[in-house]
Amino acid sequence: MTLLTIALCVLFVRLGEWQWHRGVHAQAEWDAFVRGADAPIAPGAQPLATLPRFKRIRVTGDWDAAQQFLLDNRSHAGLPGYEVLTPLRLAGDRVLLVDRGWVPFTGSRAHLPDIALRDLMPVSLTGRLDNLPVGGLALGHAAPAADGSWPKVTSFPTLAELATSLRHPVESWML
Questions:
Q1: Across the strands, what pairs with 41?
Q2: CB of 115 closer than 8 Å to CB of 66
Q3: For residue 6, what is the enclosing H or E element?
Q4: Cα–Cα–Cα angle for 51, 57, 58, nearest 5°?
Q5: What whole-number distance in Å separates Cα of residue 68 and Cα of residue 72?
Q6: Of the ranges 42-46, 122-126, 145-149, 163-167, which one carries the lowest mean pLDDT score?
Q7: Global confidence as pTM
Q8: Dmax of the chain from CA atoms?
């Protein structure tokens, strides 16, 4: 009984340390998010990869409305749906993926939601730099289909997979 008590005490101390480190990591992410809340910058020719995560930026470019991605298995207010990722062509032949938000699931994967852009004029956007969403245990990962149909439905893709589908390199952050 004494050995069992000691083993449980050691286990609980280890679990407490693990939880403590998770809290430290979460606080560091929050601090980085708050630091990025200052006035947005226009990166210009500066590579976006040199900017920190959550940095607010202002970019101007043209939508690539013909090639969009639907990130599958996303929910909002308990409803299933997709996150819409649209490429924005920047000066210097650079492409930045923009998360345009959530759209509801139509009830059938054969009928995708309407994500068409009505106005294709150059746009100026302000937002924060972030990583693509990742699955906790990488379950449900699905690269974009290699066929020529658009929009492409995908789950937790990598930047390399999206760049391959676009046939063009993409910035290392998304907006």
A1: 57
A2: no
A3: helix 2-35
A4: 140
A5: 13
A6: 42-46
A7: 0.76
A8: 74
